Amino acid sequence: MAGSVTREDLEAMSGVNVLKCMRCGKCSATCPSYENMEYHPHEFVYMVERGEIDKLLASKSIYTCLSCFACVDRCPRQVEPAVLIEAVRNAAERRQSGNHMAENDVPKIYDLDPDLPQQAIVSGFRKYRK
Amino acid sequence: MTYSYFPGCTLKNKATDLDHYARISAEALGFTLEEIPEWQCCGGVYPMAQDEIVTRLSSVRALKAAEDRNQNLVTLCSACHNVIKQVNNDMQTNEYISSHVNNYLGKEETYHGNVQVLHYLEVLRDEVGFDELAKKVVNPLKGKKIGAYYGCLLLRPSRVLQMDNPENPQIMEDFICAIGAEPVIYAQRNECCGGYLTMEDKSIPERRAAAIKQNALDSGADMLITACPLCLYNLTRNGGEAVPVKYFTELLAEALGLKEGE
What we know:
- The structure holds two protein chains of two kinds.
- Chain A is mostly helical.
- In chain A, about 50% of the residues lie in helices and about 0% in strands.
- In chain A, helix 3 (about 40-50) packs across helix 6.
- Chain A is globular and about 45 Å long.
- By secondary structure, chain B is α/β, with parallel strands linked by helices.
- In chain B, strands 2-1-3-4 form a four-stranded parallel beta sheet, sandwiched between helices.
- Chain B contains eleven helices and eight strands.
- The longest helix of chain B is centred in the first third of the chain and has 16 residues, at about 80-95.
- In chain B, helix 1 runs parallel beside helix 11 (about 250-255) and helix 9 packs across helix 10.
- The chains are: A mainly alpha, B alpha/beta.
- The interface of A and B includes residues 101, 116 and 128 of A.
């Protein structure tokens, strides 16, 4: 893989200091997407700390964070795991052919479900592609 | 009082009720929402990365348009509110983001976060006052047990949004009291509905909505209200029909006697 992503890249992009984490697990305990994640919010924090970033980049977990800010608000150390997860997702999507959803997928999704609010479509576009 | 108003993409399409009832209720309560010209979609989700500049521009253009008119900016959709308020905070506090955005805009005048972003509910609470609102209610919704559904974007991150206590909010409950109904407190009121994941995997919003509605039902609610079109969609599509979900502005218009004869 060309141009590996480093812990320093992710810290710069997110502004998150992974060393602030005290491993209490409250972020994962409060995460509404917990059951849908291979790696959970607290794991993102320590895996970035250890440099196990390729595993995160390849994991579907980066697309199941809802960005609901529950972990951000409830972290007793202001680590802000969701902001770190977003940085990993950005790093994955900024690579060539890194988009998670194609433009042509959207009309198909919409045809199946014409009640879908525009808000879902624009949010999906922001989250799933660069 | 006149405010600049950012309706957002969904309020012009699938959520026209949320917009319409807000505007007519505003006039009845003595304030005006003046839609800013040529606004652009906020993007629906706040770009969290420090180096995401372009995705912040539409919010800053809206804020700048409000500043040019010497008005504060009112939002109604929870997502627009969340995005624009957080970007406004970046323009106030983050020198890297603020300088890059201002360079990108290339205007002689720069923007540094001087506009105040207010959610419509904040206007009702802080500018109109819930006591004054209650005096203008002609059709109190007596006997209705209503659960406020805050979801995620209205309250969090609380450090930036500063709208209410994120774990024990009361702004929507106070609103429900003001229109003559009875608020129902339930644990899931500030937990996420599953949001945009409905684009890819319906099972997550299905499970979330079922948990939220069951909790509201068990707590005695016979209706939920929300300010977010995506919450309304996810909650209406999933979790059964026992608890209908409405926009809070529709109940506001009903209580003010503005719904009849339409």
